[in-house]
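R.M. (postdoc): so does anyone remember the format we settled on? I'll just put the structure tokens first.
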């Protein structure tokens, strides 16, 4: 398996700029490129492409990548504006079709993620394994099994010391935009949604916030099987461990404290890696983004190892 990871940190959009005709234009870090596809490290705060919500925006990832490599690119998936990390584009229509099918091939993706969870193999044809990291409120436990968390314990394979994995199987109602989806029915039933997760680090700060005497954080790795809108954010909020900086599903006491204590504001969610079969060679590959300086600032303050 090839494993591609950028060696330079990518900060928030505000910090990755270059002067061009007196207009600040972001330069994106290219994580991988060949004649068939290109992957970049999308900073937090950047839209992937134009939409009805972006009337005041000047730059978009699709446009920036096109200009940087000098050719048309085809989006095959999306990341929410506040989410940073690996963003993949195809360079031909044919490859775009293949990669789009890989993202949509949920059954094989479920098999791949499950096999990884128990230490068997590296996936299967077309499986697109998406790995995210999130900083969340509280100390997450994967050993609880009840109707509230909808979690089940998934222990590591024999001989391995990986943290245990939890599994969230919690259907989600389709999230609709007030303007973009104004003609779409609001009465659709909830759609199936599944995510694997595991706890990587935990920490506590001896600072009282609200009714709690300490502030607790967990660094959680999440591998979604399905791809519902805001799935990771909604699943972690469902577990009562919302992502720090999430203004839609987060904690209105923890978020202001985080801004004050860490001196920056953002959604603490990164699309860390994509693992899939190359659309032409079929070689298994993994493209990874590095944690940027703000993430490393958090790791330092919480006395976690740098990653």
């Amino acid at each position: 398996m090839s494993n591609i990871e950028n060696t330079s940190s990518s900060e928030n959009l505000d910090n990755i700029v270059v002067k061009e005709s007196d207009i600040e234009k972001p330069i994106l870090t290219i994580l991988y490129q060949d004649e068939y596809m290109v992957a970049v490290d999308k900073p937090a705060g950047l839209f992937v492409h134009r939409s009805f919500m972006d009337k005041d925006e000047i730059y978009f990832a699709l446009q920036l990548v096109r200009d940087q490599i000098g050719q048309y690119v085809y989006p095959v998936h999306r990341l929410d504006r506040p989410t940073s990390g690996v963003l993949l584009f195809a360079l031909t229509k044919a490859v775009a079709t293949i990669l789009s099918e890989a993202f949509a091939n949920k059954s094989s993706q479920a098999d791949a993620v499950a096999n990884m969870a128990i230490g068997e193999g590296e996936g299967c044809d077309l499986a697109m394994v998406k790995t995210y990291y999130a900083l969340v409120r509280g100390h997450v436990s994967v050993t609880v099994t009840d109707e509230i968390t909808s979690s089940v314990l998934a222990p590591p394979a024999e001989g391995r010391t990986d943290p245990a994995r939890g599994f969230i199987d919690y259907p989600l109602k389709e999230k609709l935009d007030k303007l973009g989806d104004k003609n779409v029915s609001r009465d659709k039933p909830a759609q199936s949604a599944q995510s694997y997760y595991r706890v990587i680090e935990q920490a506590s700060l001896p600072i009282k916030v609200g009714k709690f005497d300490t502030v607790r954080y967990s660094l959680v790795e999440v591998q979604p099987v399905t791809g519902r809108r805001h799935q990771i954010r909604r699943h972690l909020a469902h577990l009562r461990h919302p992502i720090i900086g999430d203004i839609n599903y987060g904690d209105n006491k923890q978020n202001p404290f985080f801004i004050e204590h860490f001196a920056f504001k953002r959604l603490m969610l990164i699309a860390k890696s994509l693992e899939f079969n190359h659309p032409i060679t079929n070689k298994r590959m993994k493209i990874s983004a590095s944690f940027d300086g703000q993430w490393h600032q958090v790791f330092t303050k919480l006395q976690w190892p740098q990653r």
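R.M.: ...and that's the designed sequence above, right after the tokens. Also worth knowing: Residues 14 and 180 are 27 Å apart (CA to CA). The radius of gyration is 19 Å.
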